[in-house]
Each structure stands twice: as structure tokens, then as C-alpha cells.
Amino acid sequence: MEVIEELVSISKQLQIDGANEAETRLKVIDKVLFDVLKWTHEDVNVEERVLEDGSATFSDYVIRTANVAFVVEAKKVGIPFESSPKSRWLKLSTTNLKGALGEAVTQARDYCRKLGIQFAVVTNGEQWVVFPANRIDQVAFNESSAIVFNSLKSALVDDYSDFYGLLSREAVVNSSLDNSLLHYTEDQVEERRLRNFQRSGFSAENKNPIYPLIEEAVTLAFSDTITEMDPALFEKCYVNTADRVKFDRKINMHLSKSQKIFNKTPVRPLSGKKKGDFKNVLLKAQKKSKPLAIVILGTVGAGKTTFQHYTRNVSSRDIFEKEIDGFHPQWLRVDFLKYTEDCSPAEFIYESLMDMIVDSEELCDQGNCVDLAYEKDIKALRMTTKRGDNAENLFNNAVSDLLVSDYKKKKPYVKKILSYVGGRVPVYLVVDNVDQLSEEVQSRIFSESISLADKLGVNIVISIRSSTYVKHRNSSSFNAFDFDPILIEPPKVESVISKRFFLARNIVEGDKGDFTAENGSHVIVDDLAVLVELVQSSVLGTEVGNLLDVLAAGDIRNALRMTRHFLEHGYSNSGKAYSIYKQTGAYVLPKHEALRAILLGSHAVYSEDFSLIGNPFDSRLGRVNLQMTRLFVVVN
After folding, report:
1. Topology, domain 2-181
2. Is the pLDDT of residue 257 over 80?
3. For residue 578, which of 19, 237, 356, 477 sits 20 to 30 Å off, Cα-Cα?
4. Pairwise CA distance, residues 634 & 636, whole Å
5. What angle do CA 147, 152, 154 make, to 5 degrees?
6. Contact (CB, 8 A) for 160 and 168
């Protein structure tokens, strides 16, 4: 805001001083382009040579992105452009293009034609005129219209959102000039899409008749949220890795060390006055040492949440179930999937911690936790309460008011409780699913989480993108912790799917069922585990399995979804497949059927809105000149 106010003020002063074009460019136009509209110096060429028919001229600015460019022609601030102050639009007719404006527009138009550039801007620093200079859609130049901002105050204050939405780097990259000046506001080939001629969005033939028999087992076994499973089932689904072992060792060593410090007294206590000195030294050392901090790095879908859950509920479960001094080690998980940006990350964490404290019998125990956490405050209130017949009531009311006040504020209450508990058992603040938010929000969460953990004196485990970690690792907040970054590489897709099939098979083993084959015959299945083996044989060690691995691109969550799609819609001849498998013990589904099932699911034709596989060729809807790069997947 300060930059904008300064620019408006400078522009007015330059008009009074009668500044030349060079000064106008330096003090106003450059700042608007780079500071306000966020163009980079790499995007902009100044004084670019324009050569045609042996004569050379120079364009003031040529601004380019990967798929669009525009020319900016600058004039000195003292040359006014004649235009209608009441209208934003100005038709580029011969009548309207008079005087300084007409000369500037004609000059910029000629530059665009010679350079093969479609759009142009003319400005005197105060007024900004944006227009299509070199159209390729059979609309004459004089039939086109320009968008006019008649003052810098209009562009940067009154109509800032329109100005920024038209000329900023972000807007131009997203086709703002096409949409605003050429009116390309809709997908121009939408009406030609095959799905618009298929009135029925679903196809009964795509349904796999054997799937309902194993649907419940597949849904459970191939869920991408297995952290909600029973720990015993969860352990069977988990694929161990070297990273997993390193993480477990780090957590278990820290827990074990903490338990020894809190539980064990010296074997040979010193005598006399120094009897408890050794234990006190150990306790002080524990309090002075830096808290544990683990940063889990990895791509979205690599399994970072599963990674954390395995530690708490499987590999370190026994340690977390051991009671120390009336408390168990605390694993306080804050899930940022539920985060909305109507509050700060720190406020969200405090809210989540407060909910966990209220739900915990240990942490909300009045006698064993709350009163002891507020012991110093309660003693202070006791000392300041006036003596008399009503002293005890006054004291109790003061204590009650303090606790209620802190409870309502949440933040001081959380600090007291966790600081107290953290002095007795290890407390881990686990911040998860941060990497699914924007880079800017991630940075805020990361900074505020570290600061909060430092204030509370607790350990922290946080999952973020590698770029966010690199950005902050040299900041002062890191000094409060001994950070140990762990990069999580996604496990092999085939290993994950193999374990999930094993779980599904065990769930349905011994159950019976029946289905109607494609030829109408009634098929009885004595053991549903055979059906799981049948579909498994089409995935593991086959081209279908390789296809799932490639299409998932390291996202295990997506690989599981695609496998569920394949199992539900991938068998058009289920009766034949079952018969062949029973006779030979092997059957592999044709790979084209697998691809169809993964791409289309229950739909008759491909749709970007519903398919698990995006269309990499359809990158810019609404751009006619790019339509030949589009790939439309058609299945009859």
C-alpha cells in the first residue's frame, strides 16, 4: 500500500515538473511493472530492436511469458491521452485515435505486427491503455476495443483489482488478455467433446459382477486412511523401509532415555547433604537439553501420516503405554487437513491441543494434573488472600476464577498443563498434513509450530515439503531444537498392494457367495478368497501392476484408489475369468481393460472431472490455437 501511495504522489509531482519520458519510465512505469504487477526482469526486454524492410526502430518494453507477449510503449507524463473519462472501453476507430493517443497506439500496433505479438499497452505513466494490436481471429483492428485506466489513481487504487487482474504476471499467464480483450471466456471446443453426445454418464457394462462379493474387504484393505484401522490389521498392511527403522530408533531412544532419567535413582546415592545431588543433576540435564525435533520430508502421498501412526500405535506402542509418575508419554497429533485460514496456525494448534487435553482423563485430572500444574499460582493466591472468617471461601473463589479464566482463554491453560506434564514425561507435538497446503501457509505453520513447541518445552514432529525445510533451516528458531530431517521415499507400489491383497484375502477367507456371469449363468463361489486371488493375479508381477506403478508417480494414496477402480470396473468377462482361474490357477486381465477401468471408472467416456488420471495435453481450455495439442481419450 505504501508503494502505491508513493507512486500516485510521484506521478502528480512529475506532471507538475514536466518530466521527460526517461524519468517517467524510471520513476513510475518501471515501478508499476515490477513492484505492483510483479513482472520479473527475466520477463522484460527493454529497447528491443524492431527491424523490417531495412529500417530499425526500438520498442520501449517487450514482456514475454511462455505462451503470450505484449509490447509496452511509454510516453512522458506530460502528454495527455484523449479518451472518455466515463467509459472503461474505447473503440479503436479512426475517430477515437487522435492526437498523442492515436500516435502512441499506432506506434505500438506497428511494433506488434513486426514482432508477431498480439497485445500492446501504451502509457504516459498516468494513463494506461491496453488493446489487441495484432489479431488473428479475423476481426479488424479498428473494430477492436481497448481497456482504458484514465489515471494512476484509478489503476492502483479505485480499480486496482481490475488493473492487477488484467496486467499482472499471474493474470497474463492465466490468459487475462485473451479473456478480456478477445472475450475468450469459455472453452471453445467444449461443445465438441464426446461426453456431451453421451447423455448417460454411466455404463452398466462397466460394473464387475464379482466385486460386490469382496467389496467390503477391498474397501477396508485398500483404504488410503489405514491409520484408522485396528493396530493389528494396520501392522499387517504396513511396508517397512530403512527410513522407518531410523525414525523408530530415534523416537525409541528418546523415550527410553527420558524414562531412565525420570524413573531411575542413582544406584549409590551420596550420603549426607548431597544425598540427592546426582539425581538432581540428571533432571537438570534433561531440562537443559534441547528437545527432540524430527522433520519428515517427502512428496504428497508418500506415506508420512502412515509413517507417524505406525510409530505411535505399533513400533513404540509398549513404551507409550508405560506409566511414569502418574502419566503416560503424550503423542499430541494436530491434523492440518482441518485447518481453515480464518485463524493463525498457532491458534489452530492451541485449539487442537485444548481439545486433546479435555478428552484426556490424565491431562484433565484435577488432583493429579491441573492443581499441580497451577501449584505456584495457587500458592501465590494463598499468600495474597486476606485472613479472616471468609478467607477460605475467598481463596477458593480466586483459584476457581483463575482456572476458569485460563480455561476460556485456552492458550495459558494449554501452556500450564503441557509444561507441567512435559517436565515428567516426554510430550510430542505432532504436526501433520501440512504439505497439502500452499507453500506460503506451510512456511507460517512451520515457523509458528517451532515457536510454540519451544515455548511449551515439548518435542516436535512435523511433516513438510523439502522446499519449506530448506527455506527455514538457517533461521534462529532452529537453534531451540536438535533437528533431524528424515526423507520418506514412497514404498514400492507392488509391495503395498501385495500386503493389501493379503489382508483382503484373510478378511473373506472361508466366506461363500454367488454372482451372475455375463452369459446369465449362476456361479457359486465356495470360498471368496479365490476371488481375491483371481484379481491379485492380474496385478502383481504383470503389466497392469507396472501400469499402476507408473501412473501413481510415487503417490501411494493414488495407487490405492486406482487399484480400487480397477477391481470394481476391470472385469467385463468375470464368469470366464473365474472359470479359467479355477481350472488353471492363473488368469491375467487384458491390460487395455485395466487401463479403461482406471481411466473411466463408472463413466462411459473419459472426463477430466471424474477420472483419477489427468489429461496432460488439455493444459489450456479456451485457447483455440492450442487445441491440436489436446488428447481426448475415446472408448467405445
Report:
1. tt1808, chain A (3.90.1570)
2. no
3. 237
4. 7
5. 65
6. no
